[in-house]
Amino acid sequence: MKRRRHYLMATGTIGKPRLIFTTAGGLPEWCSGQSSRTEIIMSGEGSFKPFDSGTVPRYQEPASFMRAQRHPVSSRLDIALAGVPFDTGVTFRSGARHGPAAVREASRLIRAVNPTTRVAPFDLCNIADVGDAPTHPLKVEESCDMIQAFFAGIHDAGAWPLSIGGDHTVPLPILRAIARDEPLGLFHVDAHADTFDSFMGTKINHATFLRRAVEEGLIDPARTIQVGLRGTRYGDDDIDYGNEVGMTMVPMDEYEAMGRESFIDLARSVLGDGPCYLTIDIDGLDPRDCPGTGVPEPGGISMRDMQVILRSFTGLNAVGGDVCEVSPPHDPIGITFVNVANLMFEMACVMARNRKRS
Ligand SMILES: [Mn+2]
Fold first, then answer.
1. Number of structural domains in the chain
2. Could you tell me the pTM of the whole model?
3. Ligand 1 ion local residues (Cβ < 5 A)
4. pLDDT, tens digit, for every residue of 164-177?
């Protein structure tokens, strides 16, 4: 049978991609959107719409974040989705270097419109998957330099980054790239405070990223709120540092006592109107929802609460975000990655709404 080639063609302005058939015949009408070989042609004025799952089934084509188009970093982008496959900064179980691949795969399920806020991020903004930051699997500091350079490219192009790690060292080089001009507020979900000074003689790892970021003037501690802190601890060093610099810390016991709505009010008041960054260490969520992580701690935030909190952030001045510590080898069922894909969508909604406030 004569092979038919289909072209998913950019339509000139931001709009729905159009399928153009270059040869006729062969396939029945009901599968006219499919092909064994679909090519995306990007013109100078092309569309950044994700694949339409009503045309190209969501299990088809190589995975990208939320089925976004793959595109190099460009000044035409509002939000750049990126992976950071790096986990040489972990102190316990490794595996988060595989996080971006697993979340890309799971994010095939993500659809277009937020059911609560009705934000449709791909309608508001040009969003594309710009691929993975380069890393070295054996070198921490060198990898940080490579990651920083990659995100500096995104920042210099005028786009806001939304990434999937990688261990929780990853926000440090991202913040070094995007918070050079002014310190950002920080919404930080985590079982651990990540404010140790050092671990076994190393200063750059997933337990120290936030302390380094404050020391380097990248994060404003007065506009920083941490939630989900719990689990057994080494001592008071990390919490003492947070108190010393004036962060707002909400341990899990306090979160439960104050309740979700009061926490949302507190978070909005701490973060204020200035630009802020969102970082979710997936171990901040309860391991029953997100078991795929390197340092699990029982008794965490539910996926449902996290959804509601992020939806309540609509209107927040969020200019970047990440989800880190997503470790595929520790979740053979894969529910972690479905949840993380949904958190990525929620963050994309907050950022897209902020980018297009008018
Ligand atoms: Mn962390």
1. 2
2. 0.89
3. 168, 190, 194, 281
4. 999 999 999 999 99
